[in-house]
Structure formats: C-alpha cells, structure tokens
C-alpha cells in the first residue's frame, strides 16, 4: 500500500456535504477538434428510380473523399510563460475561486507554462475519476468485459447468480433501453436458463467477489436516496437506479438482492425466494452474460461522471492485479499502477475511486500530468481518454456550461468535471486560437459550485482565446 495514498496531507478543506446540479441534456451541433480539423459532409444528389427512354446525361465526376480531420502541426506557436501569466491574472485572481490551485502545460512538449500551488493537495471531487480511468487503461485491455454467471445450486431447484462486478445489467425488456448502452440483460439470462431446462424455485446471489464495506469514508447515507451512489455490491440493475433511465434517480439500498429478484420475476418465481449466499466450487454453469467492453464503460464513467461505474472499475483493476476487490484494494491497485507508470503520487489521499468522498485529496500537478500524457506522446494507452471527456456546451457534465452569451470555450474545451458542496474542479485540454493544444487542471475549494464553476470556466475560456505570445 503506497504511503502517499494513506498518509493524511494537510491542505485546504472542502465542504462536508456533496452537492451536484442536475445535468441538462442539450442537443447541440458542435464542430469540435480533438486533434485538429473540421468535419465536412458531402451531399450527393439522388437519382430517380424511374427508367427513362431519353438519352441519359453524362455521369458526373466522381466525388473523391477529402480527409476532414488532420492533426494540428507541432509548429503551432507555444504561449510564452510571461504572456500566459498576464492573460490569466484577472481570472485566476477572482475571489469566487476560493482556495485555488492550477496547472497549464503544453501538450506536445509537456512543459508547464503556468501554475499556482500545483503540489497543494485539494479536494478533487469527480476529477478523481481521471486517476481511475488512467489506471484502468494502463492495467486492462480496452476490450475487457465483466462476466455474470448462473450455476446450479447445492440442492435441486436452486440456482446461484454469481456476481462478477457488473453494475450495468438491466431488467428492461429487450428493445427497451436501460441506462447503460450495450449492457447485459436479465432477459438473456432468463432465456438461457429456460432453454437449459433447469428447474428453478429458489435463487441465491453470490456476492463474494467483493470484500469489505459497501460505503466509503466521506460518503453520506442520504446520497443513496438522492441518486448519487448506492452501496457498492458486485451486481446491480442500471447502477442501482430505481428509475432505470434517469441519471440521478433514487438508488437501491440492496442492489444485489434487487438483481436476484428481477431474475426471479423473469423466471416466474416468488422474489421472496431470493437470498444472499455462495456458489459451490465447480458447480455446473447454466447461463452467462457479459458487460460492454471497458472502453465503452470508461466513456460512460467520464462523460456522465458515474460514481457507481467508477467504483466498479476500480475493483475491476484490483481483481486484475490480484488485490482484494474492496475500497482499499481498488485504491492501492490504482496507486500502484500509476506509480509503476512513473507518476508522482505525493500528496494523494483517496478513500474511493469515484471522488464522492469529501476526504479525498489530489494535487493539480498529478491531474495535469495524466492529461498531458494522454494529449501528448507520453502514454499512447491513455490517448482514448481525450474522446471520453465531456465537450464544453455540448455533452455530458459540460452540456449546460459555456452556454452563456460568451461561448468562447464551447466546443473547444474538453474536460472532466468535479463538483461537491464546496469543491469544484476541471481537468482536460483545449486548442487555443493559434492551434496549440494546452492541458490544464484547475481546482477550487471553499466556495459553492454556483460561484466557483463559472470562475473555473472563465479560466479555461481564457486559455482558448489566449494565443499569449
């Protein structure tokens, strides 16, 4: 266990309660350049199906494809430190930022162009998921899936639902969307069990793959009913949501049992005949389903800032690295993976892998180092992370931001957000007006999000418009 993850670092304090505004899903047409370029659509006239006896016109010239997305050249000018500092001074000095730290770096070279207290540990909120995603991409293949099995029980008529760590299953009927696209369905398990001809009158749910408590230090029990989290168990329906397609729906207090009960209803069994237990070693398999691949789940985790997915993926890393699938095991596995990849974890203290804990601490330096690795040439494995980040004014947790009259950052900034009651953060990248890709990590503590988030957005928008030479 890394000392940097367990030793308490004294830094600015965060609020004691989580507060998150509901994301408005706004359909916005955005021209966005992640690596540069503009999307171009070719409109080709259609021809009539009718057959004409008259002379046909000559065939038009062939429409040749033209590359629509090209990298920005490395020759784009780099902002100077002095000019960038001068441009940022008015916005980073805002009292709305409270206790503030930040880093801005050149993605291609990795050089830090501006910073303010970059090593000071701050409450990161959901930017913690940047560490979880990076560790997952370094430790697991992008095609990695989680398997849920059903095996025969110890007595006739009993089956055991063996949880594998997938919180994305859905009991929605086939053809009806669940919360997570591409998730496995209870109906598929029902069909396989029925085809196997296995008599069933009792279901046991085996959750033994996870260890330890189901709620982390720094979480609050009312957040379950508020829709931010659910007790972390290795099998759930739609992340434990009571309303399967609603993001911040109230969550289940016993998600594993709820999954077993859904299977019971599908099989025509009394849900009261469902209990928690353990499968016998070597029991015959009756059915199985798999989750969507890791790359899809990482996109969902970062785009929607999904706390339950982040905790499940943290344990997925722990299982892969032969650690216990618990809060501490996931934290240690993420820390060891990042440490082995060369990242400096000084000042990091984690109690979960989602960022919901008000007791987490991360320095802005580390968040920006990971972003620079992804956007530059440091870690090719992390490059897909850039596509998973929300787009300012368009998608995910940034869909309702950068939507004011001053939209200079909309479509150009991509970043992971973080919001607690008195902590806000942004970690991502932006292409400035000169075509240079800049990474950034910005962290505000001791201010409510309705005050600090616009102030953080102003800093990121300044980077977009800077040029700064």
- How far the N terminus sits from the C terminus, by CA atoms, comes to 45 Å
Largest sheet at a glance? Answer: 5 strands, antiparallel
Spans of at least 5 consecutive residues whose pLDDT stays below 50 are: 6-54
Taking Cα atoms only, what radius of gyration do you get, to the nearest Å? 25 Å
- What's the count of strands? 14
Strand content: 15-25%
Strand arrangement across the biggest beta sheet: 2-1-14-13-12
What is the helix/strand order? HHEEEHEEEHEHEHEEHHHEHHEEEH
How much helix is in the residues? 25-40%
Question: Can you describe what's shown?
Answer:
The chain has 469 residues and is of the alpha+beta class. The chain is built from 12 helices and 14 strands. The strands form 4 sheets. Strands 2-1-14-13-12 form a 5-stranded antiparallel beta sheet, with helices on both faces. Strands 9-7-5-4-10 form a 5-stranded mixed beta sheet, with helices on one face. A two-stranded antiparallel sheet has the order 3-11. Strand 4 (147-152) and strand 5 form a beta hairpin. Helix 2 (81-92) packs antiparallel against helix 12, helix 3 crosses helix 9 and helix 7 (294-304) runs antiparallel to helix 8. The longest helix has 17 residues, at 449-465. The radius of gyration is 25 Å and the shape is globular. Residues 6-54 have low confidence and may be disordered.
């Amino acid at each position: 266990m890394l000392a940097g993850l367990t030793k308490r670092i004294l830094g600015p304090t965060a609020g004691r309660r989580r507060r998150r505004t509901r994301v408005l899903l706004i359909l916005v047409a955005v021209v966005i350049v992640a690596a540069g370029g503009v999307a171009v659509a070719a409109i080709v006239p259609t021809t009539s199906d009718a057959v004409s006896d008259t002379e046909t016109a000559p065939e038009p010239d062939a429409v040749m494809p033209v590359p629509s997305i090209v990298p920005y050249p490395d020759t784009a000018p780099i902002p100077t430190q002095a000019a960038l500092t001068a441009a940022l001074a008015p916005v980073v000095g805002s009292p709305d930022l409270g206790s503030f730290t930040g880093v801005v770096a050149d993605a291609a070279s990795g050089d830090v162009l501006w910073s303010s207290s970059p090593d000071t540990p701050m409450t990161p909120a959901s930017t913690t998921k940047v560490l979880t995603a990076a560790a997952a991409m370094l430790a697991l293949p992008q095609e990695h899936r989680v398997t849920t099995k059903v095996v025969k029980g110890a007595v006739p008529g009993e089956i055991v639902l063996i949880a594998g760590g997938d919180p994305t299953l859905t009991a929605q009927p086939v053809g009806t969307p669940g919360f997570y696209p591409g998730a496995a369905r209870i109906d598929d398990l029902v069909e396989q069990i029925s085809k196997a001809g296995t008599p069933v009158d009792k279901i046991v749910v085996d959750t033994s793959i996870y260890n330890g408590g189901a709620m982390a230090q720094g979480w609050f029990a009312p957040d379950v009913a508020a829709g931010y989290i659910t007790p972390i168990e290795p099998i759930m329906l739609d992340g434990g949501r009571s309303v399967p397609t609603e993001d911040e729906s109230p969550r289940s207090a016993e998600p594993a049992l709820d999954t077993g009960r859904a299977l019971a209803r599908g099989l025509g069994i009394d849900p009261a005949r469902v209990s928690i237990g353990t499968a016998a070693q070597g029991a015959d398999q009756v059915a199985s389903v798999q989750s969507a691949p890791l790359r899809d789940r990482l996109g969902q985790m970062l785009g929607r800032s999904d706390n339950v997915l982040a905790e499940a993926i943290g344990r997925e890393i722990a299982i892969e690295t032969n650690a216990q699938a618990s809060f501490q095991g996931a934290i240690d596995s993420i820390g060891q993976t990042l440490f082995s990849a060369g990242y400096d974890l000084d000042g990091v203290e984690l109690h979960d892998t989602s960022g919901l804990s008000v007791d987490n601490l991360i320095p802005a330096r580390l968040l920006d180092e990971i972003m620079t690795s992804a956007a530059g040439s440091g870690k090719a494995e992390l490059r897909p992370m850039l596509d998973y980040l929300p787009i300012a004014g368009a998608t995910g947790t940034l869909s309702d931001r950068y939507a004011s009259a001053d939209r200079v950052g909309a479509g150009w900034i991509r970043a992971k957000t973080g919001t607690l009651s008195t902590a806000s953060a942004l970690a991502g990248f932006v292409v400035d007006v000169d075509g240079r890709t800049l990474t950034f990590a910005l962290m505000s503590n001791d201010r409510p999000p309705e005050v600090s988030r616009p102030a953080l957005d102003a800093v990121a928008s300044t980077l977009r418009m800077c040029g700064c030479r």
